[in-house]
Amino acid sequence: MSAEDETAAAATPEGEAKEEESTATFEPVVKLEEVEVKSGEEDEESLFGMRAKLFIFGETLLDVGTGNKTWKERGVGEVRLLRHREHQRIRLLMRQEKTMKVIANHALDPRIRLEPNAGSDRSWVWSAFDFAGGELVETVFALRFADSEIAGKFKDMFLQCQKDMEKLLAGEDKEEGAEEAEEVAKALSDLKTEEK
Q1: 154 — alpha (psi -120 to 50), left (phi > 0) or beta?
Q2: How far is the first Cα of the chain from the last one, in angstroms, to the nearest whole number?
Q3: Is the pLDDT of residue 18 over 70?
Q4: How far apart are CA 172 and CA 188, in angstroms?
């Protein structure tokens, strides 16, 4: 008798392995309820989206107070240009790839100047008031794409969105809005309080 035959014979008296089905039940230690998560992007449509690496120009922890500023990486993720469906304003939003933390969030102001990064045809530099940290901070950004073709598409869409925002912002100061404001002001001035 071989070693395999002896092992099989030792498993059960008849030489057959006996299978048993587990009837154990496991209850979760903590029961979690489903929670609706809102990203703040539900009312926006994406005009552009592409993976890129974001850098900011500023002081490092070692340079605080010395005035020395350098480029430091803020993260990798998808940079998107989003248009709000209701008021049509456009913003740039970028989230960290794995954590989904917001690393860039600013309006596409027509005054922003997109400049090529020195020594690279696949990178753009600009300055804007960023709201990624919850407060407005003037920040200098650099965005690097995988190749120059994608960087060119980003620039074209960025400039087109700026033109759209310029038209939108100019339209907010049109005479129609002024007339409506005058009508509301007149209606409010006609209201009188009387004692009875």
Answers
A1: alpha
A2: 116
A3: yes
A4: 22
| Whole-angstrom distance, CA of residue 35 vs CA of residue 116 | 43
Question: For residues 161 and 96, what is the distance between their CA atoms, to the nearest angstrom?
Answer: 23
144 contacts: CB under 8 Å, gap ≥ 6:
52, 53, 55, 117, 120, 122, 123, 151
Q: Phi and psi dihedrals of 103, rounded to 5?
A: -115, -10
- Sign of CA pseudo-dihedral 164, 165, 171, 177: positive
Under 8 Å between Cβ of 95 and 78: yes
Tell me: pLDDT of 15 over 90.
Answer: no
User: Which H helix or E strand runs over 58?
Assistant: strand 44-58
Q: Higher-confidence residue: 191 or 111?
A: 111
Question: Do 127 and 104 touch, CB atoms closer than 8 A?
Answer: no
Model's pTM, two decimal places? Answer: 0.67
Give CA angle at 89 (85, 94), nearest 5°.
95
Look up residue 182 and give its amino acid. E
Query: Torsion over CA of 19, 21, 22 and 23, rounded to 10 degrees?
Result: -150
